[in-house]
Recover the amino acids of this structure.
Protein backbone atom coordinates (compact mmCIF):
# COMPACT_ATOMS: atom_id res chain seq x y z
CA UNK A 1 0.00 0.00 0.00
CA UNK A 2 2.71 2.45 1.02
CA UNK A 3 4.71 1.45 -2.06
CA UNK A 4 1.74 2.30 -4.22
CA UNK A 5 1.51 5.68 -2.49
CA UNK A 6 5.20 6.34 -3.13
CA UNK A 7 4.75 5.30 -6.74
CA UNK A 8 1.78 7.63 -7.24
CA UNK A 9 3.46 10.52 -5.41
CA UNK A 10 6.53 10.19 -7.61
CA UNK A 11 4.46 10.22 -10.78
CA UNK A 12 2.83 13.50 -9.79
CA UNK A 13 6.16 15.01 -8.71
CA UNK A 14 5.19 15.19 -5.05
CA UNK A 15 8.53 15.44 -3.23
CA UNK A 16 7.02 15.35 0.27
CA UNK A 17 4.74 12.47 -0.62
CA UNK A 18 7.73 10.46 -1.85
CA UNK A 19 10.08 11.19 1.06
CA UNK A 20 7.39 10.69 3.72
CA UNK A 21 6.26 7.52 1.98
CA UNK A 22 9.80 6.13 2.01
CA UNK A 23 10.22 6.98 5.67
CA UNK A 24 7.00 5.16 6.59
CA UNK A 25 7.93 2.21 4.36
CA UNK A 26 11.27 1.92 6.17
CA UNK A 27 9.54 2.22 9.54
CA UNK A 28 7.22 -0.58 8.49
CA UNK A 29 10.31 -2.70 7.89
CA UNK A 30 10.15 -2.90 4.09
CA UNK A 31 13.41 -3.72 2.32
CA UNK A 32 15.17 -0.67 0.82
CA UNK A 33 15.66 -2.58 -2.42
CA UNK A 34 11.93 -3.28 -2.66
CA UNK A 35 11.13 0.40 -2.01
CA UNK A 36 13.57 1.36 -4.76
CA UNK A 37 12.27 -1.12 -7.31
CA UNK A 38 8.54 -1.06 -6.68
CA UNK A 39 8.14 2.47 -5.36
CA UNK A 40 10.62 4.61 -7.28
CA UNK A 41 11.94 2.82 -10.37
CA UNK A 42 8.55 1.36 -11.30
CA UNK A 43 7.03 4.84 -11.16
CA UNK A 44 9.79 6.33 -13.33
CA UNK A 45 9.24 3.55 -15.81
CA UNK A 46 5.57 4.52 -16.06
CA UNK A 47 6.61 8.14 -16.59
CA UNK A 48 9.03 7.00 -19.29
CA UNK A 49 6.32 5.08 -21.13
CA UNK A 50 3.85 7.95 -20.84
CA UNK A 51 6.49 10.38 -22.12
CA UNK A 52 7.19 8.13 -25.08
CA UNK A 53 3.45 8.00 -25.82
CA UNK A 54 3.07 11.79 -25.51
CA UNK A 55 0.79 11.39 -22.49
CA UNK A 56 3.11 13.45 -20.31
CA UNK A 57 5.66 16.09 -21.32
CA UNK A 58 8.97 17.50 -20.15
CA UNK A 59 7.65 19.32 -17.04
CA UNK A 60 6.07 16.14 -15.69
CA UNK A 61 9.27 14.17 -16.34
CA UNK A 62 11.31 16.87 -14.69
CA UNK A 63 9.28 17.02 -11.49
CA UNK A 64 9.04 13.22 -11.32
CA UNK A 65 12.83 12.97 -11.65
CA UNK A 66 13.18 15.61 -8.96
CA UNK A 67 10.93 13.59 -6.63
CA UNK A 68 12.96 10.50 -7.53
CA UNK A 69 16.20 12.24 -6.54
CA UNK A 70 14.65 13.49 -3.29
CA UNK A 71 13.53 9.93 -2.55
CA UNK A 72 17.00 8.59 -3.30
CA UNK A 73 18.53 11.00 -0.80
CA UNK A 74 16.46 9.34 1.91
CA UNK A 75 16.89 5.82 0.63
CA UNK A 76 20.54 5.84 -0.43
CA UNK A 77 22.13 5.43 3.05
CA UNK A 78 19.88 2.44 3.69
CA UNK A 79 20.62 0.95 0.28
CA UNK A 80 24.36 1.23 0.93
CA UNK A 81 23.93 -0.38 4.39
CA UNK A 82 22.21 -3.32 2.80
CA UNK A 83 24.86 -3.62 0.09
CA UNK A 84 22.81 -2.45 -2.91
CA UNK A 85 25.13 -0.91 -5.49
CA UNK A 86 24.13 1.80 -7.98
CA UNK A 87 23.03 -0.01 -11.13
CA UNK A 88 25.47 1.76 -13.38
CA UNK A 89 27.39 4.89 -14.29
CA UNK A 90 27.01 7.02 -17.39
CA UNK A 91 29.14 9.79 -18.85
CA UNK A 92 26.98 12.10 -20.93
CA UNK A 93 27.56 15.15 -23.09
CA UNK A 94 26.73 17.15 -26.21
CA UNK A 95 29.60 16.89 -28.68
CA UNK A 96 32.14 19.56 -29.56
CA UNK A 97 30.83 22.60 -31.41
CA UNK A 98 27.25 21.89 -30.40
CA UNK A 99 25.65 24.04 -27.71
CA UNK A 100 22.25 22.35 -27.62
CA UNK A 101 21.35 20.74 -24.34
CA UNK A 102 17.58 20.23 -24.19
CA UNK A 103 17.66 16.64 -25.38
CA UNK A 104 20.78 15.80 -23.42
CA UNK A 105 19.24 17.19 -20.21
CA UNK A 106 16.13 15.11 -20.77
CA UNK A 107 18.26 12.01 -21.20
CA UNK A 108 20.09 12.84 -17.99
CA UNK A 109 16.80 13.14 -16.12
CA UNK A 110 15.55 9.85 -17.47
CA UNK A 111 18.86 8.13 -16.67
CA UNK A 112 18.83 9.45 -13.12
CA UNK A 113 15.24 8.41 -12.84
CA UNK A 114 16.30 4.92 -13.82
CA UNK A 115 18.73 4.77 -10.92
CA UNK A 116 21.87 5.37 -12.99
CA UNK A 117 24.64 7.65 -11.74
CA UNK A 118 25.19 10.32 -14.38
CA UNK A 119 28.23 12.50 -14.94
CA UNK A 120 26.99 15.24 -17.24
CA UNK A 121 29.91 16.91 -19.04
CA UNK A 122 27.64 19.61 -20.47
CA UNK A 123 27.74 20.96 -24.03
CA UNK A 124 30.59 21.54 -26.50
CA UNK A 125 32.43 18.53 -25.07
CA UNK A 126 35.65 17.63 -26.88
CA UNK A 127 36.69 14.08 -27.68
CA UNK A 128 39.58 14.52 -25.23
CA UNK A 129 37.20 15.47 -22.44
CA UNK A 130 35.10 12.35 -23.07
CA UNK A 131 38.27 10.24 -22.90
CA UNK A 132 39.36 11.89 -19.63
CA UNK A 133 35.90 11.38 -18.13
CA UNK A 134 35.94 7.68 -19.01
CA UNK A 135 39.26 7.33 -17.20
CA UNK A 136 37.99 9.33 -14.24
CA UNK A 137 34.50 7.92 -13.72
CA UNK A 138 34.86 4.46 -15.27
CA UNK A 139 31.33 4.44 -16.68
CA UNK A 140 29.65 1.46 -18.30
CA UNK A 141 27.96 3.78 -20.79
CA UNK A 142 29.00 6.89 -22.72
CA UNK A 143 26.12 8.93 -24.15
CA UNK A 144 26.65 11.53 -26.87
CA UNK A 145 24.17 14.02 -28.25
CA UNK A 146 24.21 16.26 -31.37
CA UNK A 147 21.49 18.48 -32.78
CA UNK A 148 23.25 19.73 -35.89
CA UNK A 149 24.22 17.86 -39.03
CA UNK A 150 27.51 19.80 -38.84
CA UNK A 151 28.39 18.35 -35.43
CA UNK A 152 27.33 14.73 -35.98
CA UNK A 153 30.82 14.05 -37.36
CA UNK A 154 32.19 14.77 -33.87
CA UNK A 155 30.54 11.59 -32.67
CA UNK A 156 32.74 9.62 -35.01
CA UNK A 157 35.81 11.62 -33.96
CA UNK A 158 35.01 10.97 -30.29
CA UNK A 159 34.55 7.24 -30.83
CA UNK A 160 37.88 7.18 -32.67
CA UNK A 161 39.54 9.01 -29.77
CA UNK A 162 38.06 6.52 -27.27
CA UNK A 163 39.43 3.68 -29.42
CA UNK A 164 42.84 5.33 -29.69
CA UNK A 165 42.95 5.67 -25.89
CA UNK A 166 42.36 1.92 -25.61
CA UNK A 167 39.07 2.41 -23.77
CA UNK A 168 36.58 1.28 -26.38
CA UNK A 169 36.09 -2.20 -24.90
CA UNK A 170 35.33 -0.80 -21.48
CA UNK A 171 32.24 1.19 -22.48
CA UNK A 172 29.06 0.90 -24.46
CA UNK A 173 28.49 3.99 -26.59
CA UNK A 174 25.04 5.41 -27.09
CA UNK A 175 24.23 8.24 -29.51
CA UNK A 176 21.16 10.36 -30.14
CA UNK A 177 19.86 13.79 -31.13
CA UNK A 178 17.33 15.01 -33.68
CA UNK A 179 19.31 14.40 -36.91
CA UNK A 180 21.00 11.20 -35.68
CA UNK A 181 19.70 7.92 -37.09
CA UNK A 182 20.20 4.23 -36.33
CA UNK A 183 22.08 3.89 -39.61
CA UNK A 184 24.44 6.72 -38.73
CA UNK A 185 25.00 5.23 -35.27
CA UNK A 186 26.03 1.97 -36.88
CA UNK A 187 28.29 3.70 -39.41
CA UNK A 188 30.25 5.59 -36.77
CA UNK A 189 30.63 2.50 -34.60
CA UNK A 190 28.28 3.32 -31.72
CA UNK A 191 26.67 0.41 -29.87
CA UNK A 192 23.22 1.85 -29.39
CA UNK A 193 21.01 4.48 -31.00
CA UNK A 194 18.14 5.94 -29.00
CA UNK A 195 15.54 8.08 -30.69
CA UNK A 196 14.34 9.83 -27.55
CA UNK A 197 15.07 10.18 -23.84
CA UNK A 198 12.71 7.42 -22.75
CA UNK A 199 14.25 5.00 -25.21
CA UNK A 200 17.73 6.04 -24.07
CA UNK A 201 16.86 5.11 -20.48
CA UNK A 202 15.29 1.85 -21.59
CA UNK A 203 18.35 0.90 -23.64
CA UNK A 204 20.74 1.99 -20.89
CA UNK A 205 19.03 -0.28 -18.40
CA UNK A 206 19.34 -3.16 -20.84
CA UNK A 207 23.07 -2.48 -21.10
CA UNK A 208 23.80 -2.44 -17.37
CA UNK A 209 21.55 -5.24 -16.12
CA UNK B 1 15.04 22.96 -69.96
CA UNK B 2 11.90 23.16 -67.93
CA UNK B 3 12.75 23.22 -64.24
CA UNK B 4 10.78 23.08 -61.04
CA UNK B 5 12.09 24.69 -57.86
CA UNK B 6 10.91 23.56 -54.44
CA UNK B 7 12.55 25.80 -51.85
CA UNK B 8 12.19 27.19 -48.37
CA UNK B 9 10.42 30.55 -48.35
CA UNK B 10 13.36 32.28 -46.64
CA UNK B 11 15.06 32.10 -50.06
CA UNK B 12 12.13 33.52 -52.01
CA UNK B 13 13.85 36.75 -53.07
CA UNK B 14 17.02 34.97 -54.23
CA UNK B 15 15.21 32.24 -56.17
CA UNK B 16 12.83 34.68 -57.87
CA UNK B 17 15.72 36.87 -58.95
CA UNK B 18 17.66 33.93 -60.37
CA UNK B 19 14.57 32.49 -62.06
CA UNK B 20 14.03 35.82 -63.79
CA UNK B 21 17.47 35.70 -65.42
CA UNK B 22 17.59 31.94 -66.01
CA UNK B 23 17.88 30.72 -69.62
CA UNK B 24 15.42 27.98 -68.60
CA UNK B 25 11.71 27.94 -67.86
CA UNK B 26 11.38 27.81 -64.10
CA UNK B 27 8.36 27.07 -61.95
CA UNK B 28 8.69 28.06 -58.31
CA UNK B 29 7.10 26.64 -55.21
CA UNK B 30 8.00 27.49 -51.62
CA UNK B 31 7.50 25.78 -48.27
CA UNK B 32 6.98 27.65 -45.03
CA UNK B 33 9.92 28.60 -42.86
CA UNK B 34 8.62 26.79 -39.80
CA UNK B 35 8.41 23.51 -41.72
CA UNK B 36 12.07 22.92 -40.83
CA UNK B 37 11.19 22.48 -37.17
CA UNK B 38 10.21 18.89 -37.79
CA UNK B 39 12.51 17.13 -40.24
CA UNK B 40 10.17 14.19 -40.84
CA UNK B 41 7.32 16.58 -41.65
CA UNK B 42 9.56 18.68 -43.92
CA UNK B 43 10.72 15.53 -45.74
CA UNK B 44 7.10 14.42 -46.18
CA UNK B 45 6.11 17.83 -47.48
CA UNK B 46 8.94 18.04 -50.04
CA UNK B 47 8.45 14.43 -51.17
CA UNK B 48 4.76 15.12 -51.68
CA UNK B 49 5.63 18.05 -53.94
CA UNK B 50 8.22 15.96 -55.80
CA UNK B 51 5.62 13.24 -56.30
CA UNK B 52 3.17 15.84 -57.56
CA UNK B 53 5.21 16.46 -60.73
CA UNK B 54 3.99 14.23 -63.53
CA UNK B 55 6.41 12.21 -65.66
CA UNK B 56 8.05 14.28 -68.37
CA UNK B 57 6.71 17.56 -66.99
CA UNK B 58 10.16 18.78 -65.91
CA UNK B 59 13.77 18.07 -66.84
CA UNK B 60 14.79 18.44 -63.20
CA UNK B 61 13.38 19.33 -59.80
CA UNK B 62 15.68 21.72 -57.94
CA UNK B 63 15.67 21.66 -54.15
CA UNK B 64 16.35 24.97 -52.39
CA UNK B 65 17.45 23.43 -49.09
CA UNK B 66 20.46 21.88 -47.41
CA UNK B 67 20.36 18.78 -45.25
CA UNK B 68 18.14 20.90 -42.96
CA UNK B 69 18.37 18.59 -39.96
CA UNK B 70 17.87 15.59 -42.27
CA UNK B 71 14.73 17.10 -43.78
CA UNK B 72 16.07 16.24 -47.25
CA UNK B 73 17.78 12.97 -46.31
CA UNK B 74 15.73 10.07 -47.63
CA UNK B 75 14.04 12.05 -50.41
CA UNK B 76 13.59 9.91 -53.51
CA UNK B 77 13.70 11.02 -57.14
CA UNK B 78 10.73 9.48 -58.96
CA UNK B 79 10.68 9.87 -62.76
CA UNK B 80 12.47 13.25 -62.66
CA UNK B 81 16.02 13.86 -61.46
CA UNK B 82 16.53 16.00 -58.35
CA UNK B 83 19.30 18.52 -57.75
CA UNK B 84 20.33 19.44 -54.20
CA UNK B 85 23.11 21.88 -53.22
CA UNK B 86 25.82 20.37 -51.03
CA UNK B 87 24.84 22.35 -47.94
CA UNK B 88 23.98 21.73 -44.31
CA UNK B 89 21.31 24.40 -44.31
CA UNK B 90 20.26 27.70 -45.87
CA UNK B 91 23.31 29.42 -44.39
CA UNK B 92 25.43 27.99 -47.23
CA UNK B 93 22.83 29.11 -49.78
CA UNK B 94 22.91 32.67 -48.44
CA UNK B 95 26.71 32.67 -48.32
CA UNK B 96 26.97 31.28 -51.83
CA UNK B 97 29.45 28.48 -51.10
CA UNK B 98 29.98 25.61 -48.73
CA UNK B 99 33.65 26.61 -48.42
CA UNK B 100 32.61 30.00 -47.10
CA UNK B 101 30.24 28.28 -44.69
CA UNK B 102 33.08 26.07 -43.51
CA UNK B 103 35.37 29.06 -43.15
CA UNK B 104 32.96 30.99 -40.93
CA UNK B 105 31.07 28.28 -39.09
CA UNK B 106 33.29 25.18 -38.68
CA UNK B 107 34.76 26.48 -35.43
CA UNK B 108 31.36 27.43 -34.09
CA UNK B 109 28.57 25.48 -35.78
CA UNK B 110 25.95 26.57 -33.25
CA UNK B 111 26.42 30.28 -34.07
CA UNK B 112 23.04 31.80 -34.96
CA UNK B 113 22.62 33.49 -38.33
CA UNK B 114 19.94 35.38 -40.15
CA UNK B 115 19.24 37.23 -43.41
CA UNK B 116 16.63 39.50 -44.94
CA UNK B 117 14.55 36.51 -46.02
CA UNK B 118 14.87 34.86 -42.65
CA UNK B 119 13.84 37.97 -40.74
CA UNK B 120 10.97 39.09 -42.91
CA UNK B 121 9.24 35.72 -42.84
CA UNK B 122 8.09 34.81 -39.38
CA UNK B 123 8.13 36.61 -36.10
CA UNK B 124 11.61 35.81 -34.86
CA UNK B 125 14.94 37.06 -36.04
CA UNK B 126 17.16 34.05 -35.72
CA UNK B 127 14.90 31.07 -35.68
CA UNK B 128 11.36 30.29 -34.80
CA UNK B 129 10.65 27.27 -32.73
CA UNK B 130 7.57 25.40 -31.69
CA UNK B 131 9.87 23.06 -29.80
CA UNK B 132 8.74 24.47 -26.47
CA UNK B 133 5.16 23.68 -27.29
CA UNK B 134 6.06 20.19 -28.48
CA UNK B 135 7.87 19.55 -25.23
CA UNK B 136 5.13 21.04 -23.08
CA UNK B 137 7.22 24.07 -22.15
CA UNK B 138 5.05 26.86 -23.46
CA UNK B 139 3.36 27.67 -20.15
CA UNK B 140 3.79 30.50 -17.66
CA UNK B 141 4.88 30.13 -14.05
CA UNK B 142 1.28 30.61 -12.92
CA UNK B 143 0.06 27.85 -15.22
CA UNK B 144 2.74 25.44 -14.00
CA UNK B 145 1.93 26.38 -10.40
CA UNK B 146 -1.74 25.56 -10.95
CA UNK B 147 -0.80 22.20 -12.44
CA UNK B 148 2.09 21.05 -10.26
CA UNK B 149 2.25 23.35 -7.24
CA UNK B 150 4.38 26.45 -6.74
CA UNK B 151 7.48 24.63 -5.59
CA UNK B 152 7.58 22.42 -8.67
CA UNK B 153 6.71 25.37 -10.93
CA UNK B 154 9.68 27.30 -9.56
CA UNK B 155 11.90 24.28 -10.11
CA UNK B 156 10.72 23.90 -13.73
CA UNK B 157 11.37 27.57 -14.49
CA UNK B 158 14.77 27.62 -12.80
CA UNK B 159 15.98 24.33 -14.19
CA UNK B 160 14.81 24.37 -17.75
CA UNK B 161 14.40 27.91 -18.93
CA UNK B 162 18.02 29.04 -18.87
CA UNK B 163 18.80 26.11 -21.12
CA UNK B 164 16.00 26.97 -23.50
CA UNK B 165 16.87 30.53 -24.23
CA UNK B 166 18.89 31.43 -27.28
CA UNK B 167 19.69 34.78 -25.68
CA UNK B 168 23.21 34.17 -24.49
CA UNK B 169 25.09 37.29 -23.49
CA UNK B 170 28.31 37.79 -25.42
CA UNK B 171 27.30 35.40 -28.14
CA UNK B 172 28.13 36.18 -31.77
CA UNK B 173 25.19 36.57 -34.09
CA UNK B 174 25.61 36.76 -37.84
CA UNK B 175 23.66 38.71 -40.42
CA UNK B 176 24.25 37.55 -43.98
CA UNK B 177 23.74 40.36 -46.46
CA UNK B 178 23.13 39.20 -50.01
CA UNK B 179 23.82 42.35 -52.10
CA UNK B 180 21.16 41.69 -54.75
CA UNK B 181 18.35 41.14 -52.24
CA UNK B 182 19.42 43.56 -49.52
CA UNK B 183 16.33 45.55 -48.84
CA UNK B 184 14.73 47.40 -45.95
CA UNK B 185 16.50 48.07 -42.67
CA UNK B 186 16.71 44.46 -41.50
CA UNK B 187 20.46 44.47 -40.88
CA UNK B 188 20.28 47.67 -38.83
CA UNK B 189 17.36 46.34 -36.82
CA UNK B 190 19.17 43.09 -36.13
CA UNK B 191 22.34 44.92 -35.15
CA UNK B 192 20.45 47.18 -32.77
CA UNK B 193 18.75 44.21 -31.13
CA UNK B 194 22.02 42.30 -30.85
CA UNK B 195 23.78 45.25 -29.22
CA UNK B 196 20.89 45.82 -26.84
CA UNK B 197 21.19 42.19 -25.73
CA UNK B 198 24.96 42.39 -25.33
CA UNK B 199 25.73 40.21 -28.30
CA UNK B 200 28.46 40.64 -30.84
CA UNK B 201 26.97 41.56 -34.23
CA UNK B 202 28.83 40.26 -37.25
CA UNK B 203 27.87 40.97 -40.84
CA UNK B 204 28.97 38.63 -43.60
CA UNK B 205 28.67 39.32 -47.27
CA UNK B 206 26.48 36.72 -48.91
CA UNK B 207 26.33 35.73 -52.54
CA UNK B 208 23.53 34.74 -54.84
CA UNK B 209 25.89 32.73 -57.08
CA UNK B 210 25.17 29.23 -55.74
CA UNK B 211 21.43 29.67 -56.17
CA UNK B 212 22.04 31.22 -59.57
CA UNK B 213 24.04 28.21 -60.75
CA UNK B 214 21.31 25.90 -59.45
CA UNK B 215 18.53 27.74 -61.27
CA UNK B 216 20.64 28.32 -64.37
CA UNK B 217 21.35 24.59 -64.70
CA UNK B 218 25.07 24.64 -63.91
CA UNK B 219 25.21 21.63 -61.59
CA UNK B 220 28.89 20.86 -61.05
CA UNK B 221 29.41 17.78 -58.84
CA UNK B 222 31.49 19.77 -56.35
CA UNK B 223 28.55 21.97 -55.49
CA UNK B 224 25.49 19.89 -56.27
CA UNK B 225 24.22 16.36 -55.85
CA UNK B 226 22.25 15.22 -58.89
CA UNK B 227 19.86 12.43 -57.95
CA UNK B 228 18.84 10.26 -60.91
CA UNK B 229 15.32 8.79 -61.08
CA UNK B 230 14.77 6.05 -58.52
CA UNK B 231 17.66 7.08 -56.30
CA UNK B 232 17.61 8.47 -52.78
CA UNK B 233 19.50 11.23 -50.93
CA UNK B 234 21.76 10.25 -48.04
CA UNK B 235 23.56 12.49 -45.52
CA UNK B 236 27.35 12.44 -45.14
CA UNK B 237 27.72 14.95 -42.25
CA UNK B 238 31.15 16.29 -43.13
CA UNK B 239 32.11 19.77 -44.37
CA UNK B 240 32.75 18.91 -48.03
CA UNK B 241 30.65 16.14 -49.54
CA UNK B 242 27.67 16.67 -47.17
CA UNK B 243 25.24 14.51 -49.16
CA UNK B 244 25.43 11.56 -51.55
CA UNK B 245 23.26 8.97 -53.25
CA UNK B 246 22.30 6.07 -51.02
CA UNK B 247 23.47 2.66 -52.15
CA UNK B 248 21.06 1.06 -54.59
CA UNK B 249 18.77 -1.47 -52.97
CA UNK B 250 18.93 0.21 -49.56
Amino acid sequence: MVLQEINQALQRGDVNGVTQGIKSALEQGLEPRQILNEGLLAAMEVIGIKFKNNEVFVPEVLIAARAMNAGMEVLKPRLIETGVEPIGTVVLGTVKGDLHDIGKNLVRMMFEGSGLTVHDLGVDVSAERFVEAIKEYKPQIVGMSALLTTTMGEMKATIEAIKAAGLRDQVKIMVGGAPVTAKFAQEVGADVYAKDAAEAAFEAKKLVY
Amino acid sequence: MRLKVIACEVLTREFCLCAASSPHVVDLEFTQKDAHENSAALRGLIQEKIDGASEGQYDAILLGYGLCGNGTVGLVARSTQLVLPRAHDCCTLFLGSRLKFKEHFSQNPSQPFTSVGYMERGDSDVRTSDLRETLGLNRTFEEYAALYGEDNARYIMETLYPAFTMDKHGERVVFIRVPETDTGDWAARFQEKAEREGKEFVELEGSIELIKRLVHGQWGPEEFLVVPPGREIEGVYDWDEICRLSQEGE
Observations:
- DSSP finds ten helices and ten strands in chain B.
- The interface with chain A takes residues 39, 66-67, 69-70, 88-89, 105-110, 131, 135-137, 139, 144, 147-149, 151-152, 155-156, 159-160, 163-164, 235, 237-239 of chain B (CB under 8 Å).
- Chain B has two domains: 2-88+208-245, 99-205.
